[in-house]
Specification:
Strand order of the largest sheet: 1-2
Strand content: under 5%
Largest sheet: 2 strands, antiparallel
Helix content: over 70%
Number of domains: 2
Number of helices: 20
Number of strands: 2
Structural class: mainly alpha
Radius of gyration: 23 Å
């Protein structure tokens, strides 16, 4: 593929990430009011537990398969064998996950959350039949973007049509897992005829287990600061509290569910704002794997440095922007009952830049180069650190403790990676080249925070603050002569030209 294809693939991937970013802005204000912080917390807690069974099913197959498919671009026979071998592998692990999950349900291990667990177990099936790795490996991101766009629209429609009261939490869960399953099945209709023809004798699925298992270890570790925090809030936060309902009555609910509701909403907004950074790694992993296979090390390193510059230029204003608008944005967006969310958002904001840097080194350098052991060690150490910090901080600081632990862990990951790669990639050299966006973002943050003191929490005022932030950041970046500005304008111009 040409360089133009890389740009188009990135635009495709960013487009669906942007739509993913927009979707919660449509549904979250509605869901936060209909289900309340308790309902949101219950769903978040249950989803975090179900995620472990989904991980057991996926077992690192997606990253491994995407990389293998990318290496054999143009070789339909080998790609078809890999496709069916991965499906067989996931069917085995999925059966094991179902068996364990439903055994626990039968023995009453989930208590009041059992119904939600049954519904969310549908996502295990969705994981088995999800073949997005095949199209990602072939760099067909436009197809995946279209698929995700369609099924996210369906999910939005189901929420507004059928979720009307707190008791409809199970319908919300069903719309979440049901659309995931339909989305997974939809890609099968996009396979070409030759991808269905393969001899059983040619299949050797067991050869994928060991390399996928190696990638599964960091997947577990990563989950320790993406899902385990919600699980630990549900387990470690004791007691109950009274909550005023919309009809004027008072209900006694678990404090853990309410804290999980605060935490989930703040983390959702932060991680959604970081999707633009993560999308670059998704696009560049197969491209960099192919470049290395062709022996073009110089181009590979150029891609890494360009990606790092992009992360600083976009990640810095994301952090500054979230800090600046949190207090104005949260009250009108989430409604009453989410008073802790603005402070949580400001804590989470510090995850953006280290997460983006870790994505570049991990998914764009270590994995394409086959340095899985370093990737594994990084996230095992990071996950253990986060686990320990959560256990220490959640009982005293509740959701604040979990948020602080996540930020520390997210920052620790790229630090370890830079230690591993200190002879090839210097963080000080990267910082020397990319310090200007940090200064521009800090100045922008100060300006927007000052303006926000005179504005009330309304959609219009939040929009004004965002516009002010963009103008200030671009203006300061121009004054500082950030190297990324001309390239950013060129990319924007090309996107507009393509319509």
């Amino acid at each position: 593929m040409s360089k133009k294809s890389v740009a188009l693939n990135y635009i495709y991937n960013v487009s669906i990430q942007v739509f993913t970013l927009i979707t919660p802005f449509i549904t979250t204000p509605y869901i936060s009011r209909v289900l309340s912080s308790e309902g949101v917390g219950k769903f978040s807690f249950t989803l975090s537990i179900n995620a472990y069974f989904v991980m057991l099913t996926s077992l690192g197959f997606a990253l491994h398969a995407q990389r293998k498919i990318a290496v054999y671009q143009g070789n339909k026979k080998k790609q078809t064998c890999i496709l069916w071998e991965i499906i067989l592998c996931k069917a085995l692990t999925g059966f094991a996950a179902f068996a364990v999950l439903w055994s626990l349900i039968a023995f009453g291990a989930f208590g009041q959350y059992a119904t939600l667990m049954k519904i969310l177990s549908i996502e295990i099936l969705a994981t088995i039949f999800n073949i997005a790795f095949f199209f990602q490996g072939n760099e067909q991101f436009g197809l995946i973007a279209l698929r995700d766009f369609i099924f996210k629209l369906i999910g939005i429609a189901l929420i507004f049509l059928f979720v009307k009261k707190p008791g409809d939490l199970w319908i919300y869960a069903l719309s979440h897992s049901g659309t995931s399953l339909l989305s997974a099945f939809s890609l099968w209709f996009c396979l070409k005829k030759e991808n269905f023809t393969v001899s059983v004798k040619q299949l050797h699925p067991m050869r994928h287990f060991l390399p996928s298992l190696k990638l599964f270890v960091p997947t577990i570790a990563i989950s320790l600061f993406t899902m385990l925090d919600k699980t630990l809030i549900g387990v470690l936060v004791p007691g109950s509290m009274e909550v005023a309902l919309a009809d004027g009555t008072v209900s006694v609910v678990r404090l853990a569910d309410v804290e999980n509701g605060y935490y989930a909403q703040a983390e959702k907004i932060t991680r959604l704002s970081m999707l633009v950074l993560a999308s670059l790694g998704t696009v560049m992993l197969p491209r960099n794997a192919k470049i290395l296979e062709d022996g073009r090390e110089d181009i590979f390193l150029q891609n890494i440095h360009k990606a790092m510059a992009f992360v600083f230029f976009v990640g810095a204003p994301i952090t500054a922007g979230l800090i600046a608008i949190a207090s104005n944005f949260s009250p009108w967006f989430f409604g009453p009952g989410y008073e802790k969310v603005p402070s949580l958002l400001q804590i989470f904001a510090f995850m953006a830049l280290p997460a983006g840097i870790g994505n570049v080194i991990g998914q764009q350098y270590l994995l394409p180069k086959g340095e899985d052991n370093r990737y594994i060690i990084t996230y095992v150490m990071t996950g253990l650190l986060n686990l320990c910090l959560n256990i220490l901080m959640i009982p005293g600081l509740l959701s604040y403790g979990a948020a602080i632990a996540s930020v520390i862990a997210e920052t620790f990951a790229p630090f370890i990676m830079f230690v591993f790669l200190r002879e090839k990639i210097s963080f000080l050299q990267i910082l020397k080249k990319n310090w200007k966006p940090l200064v521009a973002a800090a100045l922008m943050c100060a300006g927007v925070l000052l303006s926000s003191q005179a504005l009330t929490p309304t959609p219009l005022h939040t929009l004004l603050l965002i516009v002010e932030g963009v103008v200030l950041y671009v203006g300061f970046a121009l004054v500082l002569r950030c190297e990324q500005v001309p390239e950013a304008f060129a990319v924007a111009k090309n996107i507009l030209r393509r319509g």
